[in-house]
Amino acid sequence: MAANQSTEWRTVCEKFRLAQELSEIESRKDPENNPFRSKYKARDLLKEIHCSLKKNHIEEEEEEEEEGEADNEAGGESTQMADGEPGNECGKTCIGDSPAGLRAARLAVVHYYLGVNHIETEELSAGEQHLMNCMKLIDKCTTTRENVSLFVQARNQLGILWAGRDEIEKAQGFLEIAESMYLLYMREDGQPPLDLQDYFVLEGEELSQQEETRRFEMAYTHTLYYLAQVYKNLQHYERSGQYCHSTLQRQLEYKQFVPLEWAINAATLSQYYITKTRYMEARHCLAAASVIATLAGEIPSEAAAKESDAECEKREELLQKRAEIARCWIKYCLNLMQDAKKLLEDNIGELDLERQEELKRARRNEEEEKEKGRKSAILFGSSDTFDSICSLEEKVSSMLPLDFEEARSIFLVGQSYVAQAKEYFAMDGHVTDHIEILQDHSALFKVLAFFEQDLERRCKMHKRRVDLLEPICKDLNAQYYLLICRQLQFELAETYYEMMDLKLAVADKQDQPDVHTIKKFNHLCSSSMKYYQMFLDSTRSPEGKFPEKLEDDLLRPALVAKFRLARLQSKLISNNLATQLENLTHSLESYSFLVQYCEENPEAKKSVETELELSIEMVSLLPLKINRIRSKMAPCD
């Protein structure tokens, strides 16, 4: 929108250009002790422009009034504008309809930039006032090619402002209007609209239609991004996910993204899809994240990083973000296998073979329909990245595994990402992250073991879990990492417990277990008992007293630990009657503890219904067994 080429107008345009440069470029170089220096200079220039426009606005209005009076005296009452264009039938002054409309639009643009400037310098009230002034000027107009971009961007800024004040519903209102304005304009017009910059350029310096379109689409992408955050805060997670996906897709389409930032956002979105068991979408997000992350460049070598601070920072950032994406892949593989386990297990947690066959038959019938759904899903990528994304997707299934081979293929992908993640999140410097990755690796082995029908091989998989976690548990300082130590102790106790059950099942198939089998079985029992006891001891006071009332987060784990201890103590194999008596006595004490605790704290019963029922039964049966052993030990008359 070029204007007259007067010296005064050239000065206004130059000030506007300089204000933009100060705000967007020079401000990045401002010193820490004066972070808004360039923003303040830009504000001064915008104020000067505002004064010039206001002054001209008043002078030109006076001239128009004089001309109007002269026309009235001459009896000229026309509904036509001076340039021959028809007037606005709705009575509103619209940008482009008259010089007055153009002046109002320019003032609105200046108010907009002043509003943004004040917000960026943390003067929110002043920023809000300028944005509202902008709105008052443009709300007098209908939505047209000349003003639609300003309509959308002003409401975007007000949406951000109110979201920052935790007025989420107010922010939602502004942003949803911005969205509807964009959609209405694209439906009814769709031509490249004027950009805000177009109001302050000289003739011949206007933006190209391609650039106008790019900027307008960028503004709408921001609208979608902010709406995604708003819906998330309102706990409208489904809508938030949809808007996140649309935002990411548009950022790629219009090349408006920073590779690492985009990749992390896509990987984060995948975790939402995982919670909804939408694994095709989750896999697509992760594949896109991995591919787009490579656009950030090669990882500098250690030697280069040592020589340059910039290279060192780049290396650190690339390694960290790619390791974070690898962790999201681990969660994808783990959850995919765990969801399959839930679907396939029977009422005692074992693989239901009939259910397995039923699901396999159903899958063969549904594969074609799922493929159609896949093609209709929102896809990421341009022509140069789409093939790479699809290629990466093909390396791992998005369908729930139904047998060991399918589960193993997913497990191997997850394990490869474990190795990648551990390269950055090493024990030295990233203790918590490193241990969480090891726990996920252990969980991968655990769920893979579910699909394995050979008991000995299954036992070896659990042994791998022990090998992963036991060294860490022994070395970790419980004073600083109490919660993690408890998690590791409980998991190790459970792992040894599962191995004990497997060895017991193997032994049941033998006529008479040999000495080696008995020794191995007792070792597993003792190891499980040791870690359950360590877990329970971690809840004691500094004086060594067990809590009279367990905290909510410890209630079930502690009572289950007591129950498992009781069972393990009764399972220990010994030919010595005195040892048998001692083991069963300890077992009875543990069962009795659980029963007594639930009697004194009735609210605890719901947490351990099954364990309590069995404990009550054992409390009545074990004394009989103990008495029989005592009678055998009694000397003969």
From TrEMBL:
Cross-referenced InterPro entries, in alphabetical order?
A: KBP
Q: Which residues form a coiled coil?
A: 334-376
Query: Biased-composition ranges for Acidic residues?
Result: 59-74
* Keyword tRNA-binding in record: no
Pfam families in alphabetical order: KBP_C (PF12309)
For biological process, the GO terms are: central nervous system projection neuron axonogenesis; microtubule cytoskeleton organization; neuron projection maintenance
Q: Where in the cell is it found?
A: Cytoplasm, Cytoskeleton
What keyword terms does UniProt attach to this protein?
Coiled coil, Cytoplasm, Cytoskeleton
Ranges where the record places region Disordered? 54-92
GO cellular component assignments: cytoskeleton
State the family it belongs to. Belongs to the KIF-binding protein family.
- Please identify the protein, giving its name as recorded: KIF-binding protein
Q: Which organism is it from?
A: Sinocyclocheilus grahami (Dianchi golden-line fish)
* Gene expressing this chain: kifbp
